[in-house]
Amino acid sequence: MFRFCLFTVTFSLLVFWQQAAAAPVKVPTGLFKDVNDTTIGQARLVRGTQLFIDDWLIESLEGVRRQLNQPVKHKQNPVMVKDKPWERGAPGYATVHYDRQAKLFKMWYQTWKKVPEGARSEGNLCLATSRDGVTWSKPIIDKKTGTNMVRVPKVTGFQCAGIFRDPVEKDPSRRYKMLFSCAPDGTDKSWMTSAAFSPDGIQWTAAKTLPLIPFSDTQICPFWDHRSRRYIAILRFGPPNTRLVARTESEDFLNWSPKITVFRRTRRDDVQATQFYQMAPMPYANGYIGLIGAYHNESLKPIPADKPWTDRQDLQLAYSRDTVTWFRVGGHGAETNASLNRKQDWSRQARAATFLPYGKMNKDWDWGNITPLYTPEPIVINDRIHFFYAGANAKHWWTWTGDPPKKDPNAKPPKKGLGLATLRVDGFVSIDADAKGGTMTTRPFLFLGDGLDLNADAKGGQITVEALDADGKPLEGFGLATSQPLTTDNIRHALAWKGHKDLHQLQAKPIRLRFHLKNARMFSLTPRTQNAHYIRSYN
């Protein structure tokens, strides 16, 4: 009986297959192609948004320039100031997270405890929330003290905390993770970095086994890296005042690799004797953005009038594709080690490297110091990236430098506050063209999808595009004559050519694009799929 049933099923399937084969099925127009390694060759495989911040996708620029763009500071800055008796030194090191489900900004910020003279410095951690990033509230969390302090591990010297919500953690009690500095026995010799966990970001429990990460005397910035499938932490290298940026990684958030230096001084920094207080990393698009607290020329003397930058901190920009190799982003985009070794006057480049500048000296609330706050993931709302920073109207070492003089009986602590600045999505660096026009040509690349979106501002000008093969020869039907000009400002311009419903004919094979710009700016390129393509069985 079993053999008969098996024969029947087999025979039925054979008849069905023969009938299907007898009637050939037309292959859908937009059928996705398979990608073979030999097809790719030297072409770059583009996945997701590509910024124009480095040369990974760009082969040549003719008649155009690459421009570092600065965020726009909010007109209501500072959007938060210390107004509670326990907020000494606030806002200190801080982490800002946007809860998209609750549509709520959450900020953990450090305040300093008042300790006896000569005692080890130590901080508290407070929580503030906001619906719009501008108006902040400080909810009462600790009912005993009537404060917004969260419960941190009871350790000596708690400070420098960096926090993130772990997207892959399965244990609800460890959903929020923190790295912080402490001195277990109260001495400099015991300074170290430790870990803590929390289900809600309020009740924190220290790790039973302390991670063996050397001390960092500035904010520690950990995050889950979905590319390497590891935890990464960016922090300061070495002992106090060794101002270099370092990196460490872990598979379990407890056992960490030795710190390696990933960002250090270059020839550009000699101009203003620049050092790096900290770097707040942020995975973004196909790479990583680093917000650098750039500290210029430490001095314990009154600041000379002809050196207004001395003992101040601004915010500069770095970029990486792997969290190990970082490039400084200046007025013309990313700078390689080779470019930094050229013999030239670096004064202009040093001035052009500022991503978020301090305010007008002796006037604005943030004229003395700009410190980046840590955002573990991009906060993009209404197509604007939100950055938060701590600002102050004084020099870094204000108690010693004469801003105001420490011995002045009328001296008051500097005004500090929380600042907000926003930037166009993907708008870190742009390719700019004036009325004379110019071109940007890509390296050979391959994308999967049926469309390409260009983030660009062509209002008052235009952008046209021609598609070329890997050797630079025009592709029939995708030349300048059929390119549909872009003449508006849009973060999602769809590249289009007359006679083509979509771009499925360009996908899955090496191509180049040559952009022709006049009075226009380009920020990024993103592959997309707009139509519901499907694969049917065919012979």
Query: How many distinct domains?
Result: 2
Name the shape in a single word: globular
Q: What average pLDDT do the residues reach?
A: 87
Uncertain runs with pLDDT below 50, 5 residues or more?
1-28, 534-539
Computed Rg: 28 Å
The structural class is mainly beta
CATH topology of the largest domain: Tachylectin-2, Chain A
Identify the CATH homologous superfamily of the largest domain: Glycosyl hydrolase domain, family 43
Number of helices: 5
Count of extended strands: 36
Oligomeric status: single chain
Major sheet characteristics: 6 strands, antiparallel
CATH top level label of the largest domain: Mainly Beta
What portion of residues is helical? under 10%
How does CATH name the architecture of the largest domain? 5 Propeller
Strand content: 35-45%
Determine the N-to-C terminus distance.
34 Å
Keywords:
Tachylectin-2, Chain A, disordered N terminus, 2 domains, 6-stranded antiparallel β-sheet, mainly beta, disordered C terminus, 539 residues, Jelly Rolls
